[in-house]
Specification:
Elements lengths: L7 E6 L6 H15 L3 H4 L2 E4 L2 H12 L3 H10 L2 H5 L7 H5 L8 H12 L10 E8 L4 E5 L9 H8 L9 E2 L5 E4 L1 H4 L3 H11 L5 E6 L10 H4 L4 H6 L2 H21 L3 E4 L18 H17 L1 H10 L2
Helix pairs in contact: 1-4, 1-14, 3-8, 7-8
């Protein structure tokens, strides 16, 4: 009988604004535990929004989660990308314009990823974006044409509405953060991996960046119109429930081939707003949360690595 092929490893990273340090901290703990870097461990990385940013940086730089954490914290990468509009800050607070300037983010990503293109990646990439010009969700992979620069994709997939302006890519179309339609890319990424490795087992590690809680007064909500529902975070609530539903469905399909790690941010005294990680103290807290998640899930991670087929 022919020898069984070793499994392929797929990493899926949810979107979650600036809480990407939680995800990187989990991965850094896995690296320390096994002696294998994230780049070496995984054959494919899928990511939405900030998860897509991680995917681009790890695959583009062929780096480890630990090295990427060092870059983010020591070189103040997030602070360089999250620069508010100066005299127009009041307009930003009124949500009459994006909160952050686009140019510093684009410049930072271009410096980090240089002239790396999708086709040059040695591992598979899977990143959703929403194409405003075509009114459709699309996925960027290694074989997409035209052969986009990786820093363009990282820029587009992090163009979260109200935080950053849409990004125009080299084909002339405008994109925004793909998390608006696929903030948990796990199942779609798995199906794509199956097409690439049809006769091989696939193991997927899926990591979130924390959920928000939405406890509301039902009597007050009876009087809510569109403005009040918007102010209460209904869009984020819908997004969270879609993520949880998608993750649960994926686990039902894949069984012990998949491990999903996520939790509520408030349980760790973490702020849940998307841009909180500009604060170095919050960055340290996010790293601590990631360590806590890893150790809480360590038995499941060990089983996933050694026993799932």
């Amino acid at each position: 009988m022919p020898a069984e092929k070793p499994p392929r490893f797929l990493l899926s990273l949810d979107g979650g604004g600036s809480h990407l340090l939680i995800q990187l901290s989990v991965l850094a703990c896995l690296e320390q535990d096994t002696g294998v870097s994230t780049y070496e461990r995984f054959d494919m990385i899928a990511g939405s929004s900030s998860g897509g940013l991680i995917a681009c940086l790890i695959l583009g730089q062929k780096t480890s989660a630990e090295a990427l954490i060092h870059k983010i914290v020591k070189e103040r990468l997030l602070q360089a990308m999250m620069i508010e509009h100066g005299m127009s800050r009041f307009l930003s607070r009124l949500q009459l314009r994006p909160k952050f300037q686009s140019a510093p983010k684009s410049k930072t990503l271009q410096a980090a990823l240089q002239d790396c293109r999708l086709s040059s990646l040695e591992k598979l990439l899977f990143i959703p974006c929403f194409n405003l010009s075509r009114d459709s969700l699309e996925v960027f992979t290694n074989s997409v044409q035209p052969d986009f620069l990786l820093h363009e994709i990282a820029d587009a997939c992090t163009a979260a509405p109200s935080f950053y302006a849409p990004v125009r890519l080299q084909d002339g179309d405008w994109r925004i953060d793909g998390g608006v339609g696929m903030n948990n890319p796990g199942l779609s990424a798995y199906l794509y991996a199956q097409k690439n490795w049809p006769d091989t087992g696939i193991k997927m590690l899926s990591i979130g960046s924390g959920w928000r809680r939405f406890a509301m007064d039902g009597m007050k909500a009876c009087r809510y119109g569109g403005l009040q529902w918007s102010a209460s975070g209904i869009a984020s609530l819908i997004l969270r429930e879609k993520m949880i539903s998608n993750a649960n469905n994926t686990m039902q399909v894949l069984g012990d081939q998949m491990l999903y790690i996520n939790d509520y941010l408030q349980d760790y005294n973490m702020p849940d707003h998307m841009d909180s990680a500009k604060d170095p103290a919050i960055q340290r807290k996010a790293l601590d949360v990631g360590v806590s998640w890893f150790h809480r899930h360590r038995p499941q991670i060990k089983y996933w690595l050694n026993n799932a087929h």
